[in-house]
Specification:
Bound molecules: flavin-adenine dinucleotide
Number of strands: 10
Low-confidence stretches: none
Radius of gyration: 22 Å
Mean pLDDT: 96
Helix content: 40-55%
Strand order of the largest sheet: 1-4-5-8
Shape: globular
Length: 394
């Protein structure tokens, strides 16, 4: 028998998370400055409160100051946190820091963990992840051009990256660079830890984007003879793609968990407004078109939630859940977009205004179909795996 009930301990955590969102997050949304986040003192104060409530860092084990609740637990908490754009930072699990912390947990040495993971896990510093390059397709990172060449005790890094989220104000970057140019395509790149104050780590600009930007922007960076010790290698040389998969799997599903929250909140706003707004002598809620939108949105959100929990369950069992994560990545991004779109439509001009969170949700949702792999690539992964299995069985 499949039991869908939530264990009491997790239910209690969810209640505390919801109470915190009600008391401290929604009332402070008006203080959010796009590309900057909340005022620093306010953010620090709210982070302290989250820690005191035992809700800090759902993605990290307890020994690193996190909640230690596995992927299913994270899915259930992140859905609530995802209801507000800036809440993940308050709960210590915003992208890209959460994915970077998970990567450091699996690949960093003891010394690297103390130097980089400890302050990241505490929320004392921010980090960024530098893989994508403007000159080559991000969907196919085997073409990466950034190089890291051994020179004595150092790596010398040269290259051009962009869309590096959160780079401004980050203390370190995890950089994907070609270190083994003669190796097979998936063994050419490595990951290297680069403190952002290293000479040659040059932020060119924060690329202006459609969405809310997020703290630290989405930056274009040039590495110009940027030297770091050989000991800054993360994992082994040539392991970059393997580590990228290990990082992006959990990272992607965390996005999907948060999208459910944003979609659910949009649906609730749609219902509340439809009941209140009168048109042609009756509330909008009486119109069949609006009822269809509410029913369709509920069905799609429920499906996305169950697919996310299924992927989380597999990850908790040690499976890489490659197909399940790709499925929810493209399906969840579409659900997010469509539900917000309907909610905006029901709100009319108000939905198009900045007086509700819907317009920011909508702008951010467009990126969800591109970052961490575009929809088309995830569909391809799913179809290829299914076809391969089908061929083998028949
Ligand atoms: C908001 C945001 C934040 C980001 N943050 C980071 C970050 O922190 N660090 C980082 O390294 N990168 C980051 N990225 C980059 C992101 O990972 C890439 O944009 C993504 O991998 C796609 O690469 P690309 O933009 O080069 O598109 P391309 O690879 O050039 O693809 C362009 C389009 O071609 C189509 N396409 C590609 N391959 C296929 C295929 N196999 N079949 C059919 N169609 C296909 C798709 O429609 C795709 O959108 C971010 C991007 C965004 C939008």
């Amino acid at each position: 028998m499949i039991d869908f009930s939530i264990p009491p301990e997790l239910e209690a955590m969810r209640d505390r998370t919801t109470a915190f969102m009600d008391e401290f997050v929604y009332p402070n949304e008006s203080q959010l400055v796009e590309d900057e986040g909340l005022p620093v003192e306010l953010e620090r104060d709210l982070q302290r409160r989250v820690k005191a409530l035992g809700l800090w860092a759902p993605h990290l084990p307890r020994e690193w100051g996190g909640m230690g609740i596995g992927f299913i637990g994270q899915a259930l908490i992140n859905e609530i946190v995802g209801r507000s754009v800036f809440a993940p930072r308050l709960f210590g699990n915003a992208a890209p820091d959460a994915g970077n912390a998970e990567l450091l947990l699996i690949a960093a040495t003891k010394e690297q963990k103390e130097q980089y993971l400890r302050p990241l896990a505490n929320g004392d510093v921010r980090s960024c992840f530098a893989m994508t390059e403007p000159e080559v397709a991000g969907s196919d990172p085997t073409g990466l051009k950034t190089t890291a060449v051994r020179d004595g005790d150092n790596w010398v890094i040269n290259g051009h990256k962009w869309f590096i989220s959160g780079a401004i104000g980050s203390t370190f970057a995890i950089v994907m660079a070609v270190t083994e140019p003669e190796a097979a395509s998936h063994s050419r790149a490595s990951m290297i830890l680069v403190p952002t104050n290293t000479p040659g780590f040059n932020i060119i600009r924060s690329v202006p984007v459609m969405g809310s930007g997020g703290v630290g922007g989405h930056c274009e960076i040039r590495f110009e003879d940027c030297r770091v010790p050989l000991t800054n290698l993360l994992g082994e040389a040539g392991q970059g793609f393997k580590l990228a998969q290990a990082r992006l799997g959990p990272g992607r599903i965390q996005h999907c968990m948060r999208w459910i929250g944003a979609a659910q909140r949009s649906l609730e706003m749609m219902c509340a407004y439809a009941l209140k707004r009168q048109s042609f002598g009756e509330p909008l809620a009486k119109k069949q078109t609006v009822q269809n939108w509410i029913a369709d949105s509920t069905a799609e959100i429920n499906a996305a939630r169950l697919m996310t929990l299924n992927a989380a369950w597999k990850l908790d069992r040690g499976d890489d859940a490659r197909v399940e994560i790709s499925l929810i990545k493209f399906f969840g991004a579409r659900v997010l977009h469509d539900v917000i779109d309907r909610a905006i439509q029901v709100h009319g001009a108000l939905g198009y205004s900045k007086d509700t969170p819907l317009e920011m949700f909508y702008r951010d949702a467009r990126a969800a179909r591109i970052y961490d792999g575009p929809d088309e690539v995830h569909r391809q992964v799913v179809a290829q795996r299914i076809l391969k299995a089908f061929e083998t069985q028949n």
